[in-house]
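User: I'm writing a tutorial on reading structure tokens. Could you give me a worked example: one chain, its sequence, then its tokens, then a sentence or two explaining what the tokens reveal?
Assistant: Sure. Here is the example chain.
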Amino acid sequence: MDPIAHTLAGATLAQTGLRKLTPLATATLVIGANLPDIDGVMSFLGSDASLFYRRGLTHGIVAQLLLPLLLTAAILAFDRLVRRRHRTDLSPARPLQIMLLAYIGVISHPLLDWLNTYGVRLLMPFSGRWFYGDTLFIVDAWMWLLMGAAVVLGYSQTRWSQVLWIGLGLATSALVTGAAFVPWAAKLVWWLGILVIGALRIRGLSLSRQRMLALGCVAAFCLYLAATSAGNQQVQNKVRDWIRTNHGEDVTDVMTGPLPANPFYREVVAVSSTHYYGLLVPVFNHAEIEQRFERIPLPKQDPIIHKALSNPDIRGFVNWMRFPIYDVEVLEQGYRVVIRDLRYVRPDQNEGRGIGMVETFVPL
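And here are its predicted structure tokens:
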């Protein structure tokens, strides 16, 4: 998920009552919810290095054990050396509670990352296997709305914070409602949600009601995940039946890619023993299944492709790709090999390098 989503998740968890456990509770949860993304520094080494290292070691099982301990030590050091250095009257942070909150915050991060189609390597460093939840778009508007409701009401007491939240609300609303691919019903629900949040902020809520609202938002988010997962299962069943009926093949793998702010459709990549299928599938029976592209034969073993995949300059992409296809062009000096991952680019797409498409050269 995006950094805003992780930050909102940590802040919302604090609002549920966890921030009362100890001083610096909110800071611990918010920092912990973002901490595994320290591997983002690898982006400075280039897009391929980012793909190779991102969502790996710092998102794996060992990091989930160690990062909370490091965060606990850092928070307690800050509390002693900075926060209470000249204010000995302040209550100290409580070590066990800080450690508990650090684990909650850090573990929330890979769980949220698992929910999208990008993937996360949960077993690192023991295994580089990617796990995919295929449940939420990587930037999910409804998570923003639900988590944002609890956070806005709990952290908008000063004039500057109110200005910040108004600006952020307008910016996110422009992204969600300004996109042509977002259905009008979703845009209407979004604006209703924004109006409700604004009305509650103007009215004001007691601390106990803010806590209940935060718990309600977390519960609503869990119900949203359950509904999306149920929709995914329905889509998978429809895809399996459609491919079996129209092509006589059984499906071995299905990616149900969520669309941004549109819970009514899924962009599907399905795999049989011989072909890839790209489909646009309605969750409900209000429309027919559409083909996003004609079915494509699965890649065959080829020495040129094998050599292209061994190029160290694209090792990140090779390690990350999920549904690859290859386009080999013969040149005078060798072969131009274009690799596309059907999660994020179409078979005929010539843009999207750095995320869904790379190009390499194999000399003669």
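What the tokens reveal: The first helix runs from residue 3 to 15. The mean pLDDT is 91.
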